[in-house]
Write a structure and sequence with these properties.
Layout: H1 3-19, H2 45-52, E1 55-58, H3 63-80, E2 86-87, E3 95-99, H4 105-108, H5 113-119, E4 124-131, E5 134-140, H6 144-159, E6 168-171, E7 177-181, H7 212-222, E8 227-229, H8 242-255, E9 261-265, H9 270-273, H10 285-301, E10 307-310, H11 327-338, E11 344-348, H12 363-368, E12 379-384, E13 408-413, H13 429-436, H14 449-452, E14 455-459, H15 474-486, H16 492-503, H17 508-529, H18 559-563, E15 569-570, H19 587-594, H20 604-607, E16 610-611, H21 622-645, H22 653-685, H23 700-705, H24 718-721
Parallel strand pairs: 1-2, 1-3, 3-5, 7-8, 7-14, 8-9, 9-10, 10-11, 11-12, 12-13, 13-14
Antiparallel strand pairs: 4-5, 4-6, 15-16
Helix pairs in contact: 3-6, 10-11, 15-16, 16-17, 17-21, 21-22
């Protein structure tokens, strides 16, 4: 490293430590997430709430009902500024009655049958009504877990200062499975985790139970998440051994009252590694017997165990293809083992091989579509939101529209592996909303991805950091995932509004500006990283920072494989004249993506190789449009900085400084992305930058030689780049 760069490194890290002080255990250290329960600030709402809720009526002492009761007691105390007495019967106006027809005589006697049928097994009813002539609010459900979800929903209404007048809510989840996938390893590390070590203290379990586990369960229940895969998809067979199953059972005991079931990743070669068998062939009788016995053992320890998540024959993981069997053979083996216990198998469709000459994004479709209808009923094919790998923007995965006889679930990445990790503000609800509302035409018009799936899993961004997720705004993605998993018709704007009010303030001077920042943040990242449909242009390995020049090793893990830059133009031709990946989409979508006249500009270079001087629908050339997008990304981050700076005094000083420091990093790194990318493309296009364009500060070779500081947990390069 040159002397000037070394000095910039030292200077910028000193700025970082001043700008973003270490987290403390103060009141606003991020630990409380969106469950802060601060006193209602609205002087009109507070008397309304106090009059509407004067006592809490709960009859049942079952574990989940106790969790609902405890949450309401704690939440109401904080929000109303006083204790609400708990009773077993309605004795005054303002009773908050909580229960199910099975555990509450009061609820059983109310005319709620139609609404409860609408709510289903996990949903709930919240209704203002009279009980024996007294004003009351009824929180009811068919099952205890629905009551818990309703309790959190009612508290959300108070936190966001909504009126309780005429309250009449019926809410039911649109998806049955709403899971977090933890990529946590047994040694305490987290693959693609940017918020510290794993939450799960395996060496201390089952005897020592960290209180954080309960708070983690509360946070998940508050947004309706009902399952957690505890272990990495790059699985370790040891998790299925008796000692570890006892540890898993202890965790399950903490999560169970909050409606959260545990799942584990199954290593396909486990019969060999921990079972002593000579093979893991899915049709071998001994292998089948081993998995059946293992399932029996697991369910004896964890009666409500959810099932297995499996990554097989992908990125070096063992699988059924090792024995010349199909993915269906492998999935059905495990499905048969857990079926007697009501368990499921989630089989990941993320597969690709360096020995297959086909376009990488086509390989999942080529492997799985011929297997449509071959999977057991308790198998769900877990499909990533896009056909590549959690990129800032991808088209929806074609499998969502081509496997009508297979139960599908979607996998998204909450942890921002490719979107700036813990240091860039990128609110992901717009990304997920974009995919969930995409029309696959699987069963004709209106066959959106949201309607075609039966579950959703999010790769968790949670770790042992005090603030759980590595930054304050990363918490919003955990929250948004849960809210969209419950109801994928919610808008990103509504979800952002809720989270801001619960996390920061109901003050309109805060809500409006912060919502604006959140809603433009993802597009800002797309613009300065991968505009116009570019993908996988990150540096190798850690995927942090630009690397459009990356080559060497297996081709389908390099940037040049995906950008196809040459003197003629840029982009991957996936039409009939290229890889023809577009054929995997249903006909109306295929035609739209194939045509330069109709393909959205947002994914133009995903499907087309476009000449540098070709004019787009905007009237600008590709070169001009690229420059415009890269600069827009930087400009948006600068606008976010100014917007946040204007909130000083309206947001608590601790979190204000933390976010301010991270936005400085993001602005520096947005410039890094812009400058490195523009110079690299210019080496092919040989076209000039406009006179008024913000010129890169260094030549291309400087960026190509730049290396991130050697911190695998937080590999940011802002130290080298320096602040403006």
């Amino acid at each position: 490293m040159r002397t000037s760069a070394r000095l910039a490194f030292l200077f910028s890290w000193s700025v970082w430590f001043v700008a973003v002080p270490p987290q403390t255990r103060g009141a606003e250290d991020g630990y409380d997430l969106w469950l802060r329960y601060r006193l209602v600030a609205d002087t009109a709402r507070l008397p309304e709430y106090r009059a509407a809720i004067t006592q809490l009526v709960v009859a049942s002492t079952a574990a989940t009902m106790q969790a609902a009761r405890d949450e309401l007691v704690t939440g109401l105390r904080g929000l109303l500024g006083r204790d609400v007495p708990v009773a077993r019967a309605v004795s005054r106006d303002g009773a908050l009655v909580v229960g199910t027809p099975a555990n509450s005589r009061v609820v059983a006697a109310l005319p709620l049958a139609d609404r409860l049928r609408e709510a289903g097994p996990e949903g709930f009813v919240i209704r203002a009504m009279a009980i024996r002539g007294r004003r009351a609010i009824v929180v009811a459900a068919n099952r205890d877990v629905g009551v818990l979800y309703a309790a959190f929903h009612l508290l959300r209404l108070l936190q966001t200062e909504r009126s309780l007048a005429g309250l009449d809510v019926v809410s039911a989840p649109r998806l049955r499975l709403r899971l977090l996938d933890h990529w946590d390893n047994l040694d305490g590390t987290v693959e693609r985790g940017y918020a510290g070590a794993s939450l799960w203290e395996w060496s201390r379990l089952p005897d020592s139970i960290n209180p954080r586990y309960r708070d983690y369960a509360r946070a998940n229940a508050s947004v309706g998440i009902n399952g957690v895969v505890l272990t990495n998809v790059n699985a370790n067979a040891l998790i299925l051994t008796p000692g570890y199953l006892a540890k898993v059972a202890a965790l399950a005991g903490v999560l169970r009252p909050y409606g959260v079931r545990v799942y584990l990743t199954a290593r396909f070669s486990a019969p060999i590694e921990i079972g002593g068998l000579p093979t893991a062939d899915p049709i071998d009788p001994g292998v089948r017997a081993w998995w059946a016995a293992k399932a029996d053992e697991i369910y004896r320890a964890i009666p409500d165990f959810g099932g297995f998540l499996v990554k097989a024959n992908s990125e070096g993981q063992p699988g059924p293809q090792d024995y010349h069997r199909t993915h269906a053979d492998g999935a059905n083996l495990l499905a048969d083992a857990v079926a007697p216990h009501g368990g499921i198998v989630m089989w990941r469709a993320f597969v690709y091989s360096s020995t297959v000459p086909t376009d990488r994004v086509m390989q999942a479709g080529d492997e799985f579509v011929p297997l449509d209808g071959s999977f057991r009923k308790n198998v769900l094919l877990q499909v990533k939101n896009g056909p590549l790998d959690f990129q800032p923007r991808e088209p929806f995965h074609p499998l969502f529209g081509t496997m009508p006889r297979t139960t599908l679930m979607m996998e998204v990445q909450i942890t921002k592996e490719y979107l700036g990790q813990d240091s860039h503000l990128a609110f992901l609800a717009p990304q997920w909303e974009e995919i969930l509302r995409a029309d696959t035409y699987a069963r004709g018009p209106g066959s959106t991805v949201g309607k075609e799936i039966r579950g959703i899993a999010g790769v968790a961004n949670v770790g042992s950091d005090r603030d759980w997720t590595g930054s304050d705004f990363n918490q919003a993605n955990w929250y948004a995932f849960g809210r969209l998993a419950w109801d994928h018709t919610l808008s990103a704007a509504v979800i952002a509004d809720e989270w801001i009010r619960m996390t920061f303030s109901n003050d309109a001077r805060v809500v409006g500006p912060v919502q604006g920042m959140m809603l433009v943040s993802r597009d800002a990242v797309v613009n300065y990283m991968t505009p116009l449909g570019l993908a996988h242009q990150m540096a190798r390995g850690h995927h942090y920072g630009p690397g459009p020049w990356v080559t060497g090793g297996r081709a389908d893990q390099t940037s040049v494989y995906f950008n196809r830059a040459d003197s003629a133009g840029l982009g991957f031709d996936r039409t009939a004249t290229g890889s023809n990946a577009v054929r995997q989409y249903s006909l109306p979508v295929r035609n739209r993506f194939s045509s330069r006249d109709s393909v959205p500009d947002t994914i133009l270079l995903w499907f087309h190789h476009v000449g540098w001087r070709e004019r787009l629908r905007s009237g600008r050339t590709l070169w001009e449009e690229l420059l415009r997008h890269y600069q827009a990304g930087v400009d948006t981050v600068r606008w976010m900085q100014r917007t946040w700076d204007g909130l000083e005094g309206l947001v608590d000083a601790e979190r204000f400084r933390r976010v301010q420091g991270l936005l400085r990093i993001q602005e520096a790194e947005a410039r890094w992305w812009r400058d490195a990318s523009v110079l690299y493309w210019q080496s092919f296009s040989h076209l000039p930058l406009p006179p008024d364009y913000e010129a890169p500060r260094h030549p291309l070779d400087w960026y190509r030689q730049l290396r991130c500081p050697p911190d695998p947990r937080k590999p940011r390069c802002d130290a080298v780049l320096g602040a403006p």
